[in-house]
Amino acid sequence: MIVALAAIALYLAAAIVLGTSLNQQERNGNRSWLPLAVLAMVFHGELHAEAWRIANGPDMHFFAALSLAALGMAALTTLMGTLGRMAALGVIVFPLSAMFALLYRLTGNAHPMALGWQLQLHAWSALLSYATLAIAALLAILLWVQERALRRRKFHRWLRILPPLTELETVLFRTIALGFALLSGALLSGALFVQDMFGQQLAHKTVLSLLSWLVFGVLLFGRWRWGWRGNKAVRLTLVAMALLVLAFFGSQFVYDVILKQH
């Protein structure tokens, strides 16, 4: 429990320090949040590593997968905040990562799955794609809020902590492109290594994942061919992400949480 509490405390401390510096209009100038975030991720990773050592295998049940995806989101946010001007995402992502780490710790560990390297490759590429595209969904929401405020000529103070609209939009599509590539890899590895992808237990997950992949692909093509942007980009991003959440976490919630209680 000490490892989990350390991760949670450090995530929250990083969010508070980051929020304070942003409130003082320092944007990314103050990096005092960075070591806190890095340490939080180290403890978060150790939380999973400790469970795997005890169980002698990877744990991929519902709350474990959520926690790992949140860890990936925290890592991407830290990277984007360090190399770019998107540190403000940490105010949202770091508390979410703390919450999912806590839920994982409270729900205990499931029996380890016997996964070969092929299925582990599929699982990890899927989790990385979910984390990346979840960041894209948050960026889409920020883009919508920023564009809406500018159209109404409501120049709130918090707008100054975000990059200009065009830069935010560019970051959004780069993140979607990266997530789309990772999702493509996850689907390809699934087709190669997962038996009976369209079987009873996996059919809905496969179909929803393919639909999400298709929507993201259409959005990227529309951006390249017709310059899609603004509300259309936001709507398609959120629709695709909703399909992806239902594909994996929706079905896994039913199997790992609801059905196991009956």
Automatic annotation (TrEMBL):
One of its GO terms (molecular function) is heme binding. Keywords: Membrane, Transmembrane, Transmembrane helix. Residues 59-255 form the Cytochrome c assembly protein domain. The chain crosses the membrane at residues 60-79, 86-107, 127-150, 171-194, 206-224, 236-255. The keyword Transmembrane applies. GO terms for cellular component: plasma membrane. The keyword Ribosomal protein does not apply. One of its GO terms (biological process) is cytochrome complex assembly. InterPro entries: Cyt_c_assembly, YpjD/HemX. It holds the Pfam family Cytochrom_C_asm. This is Inner membrane protein YpjD. It comes from Solilutibacter pythonis.
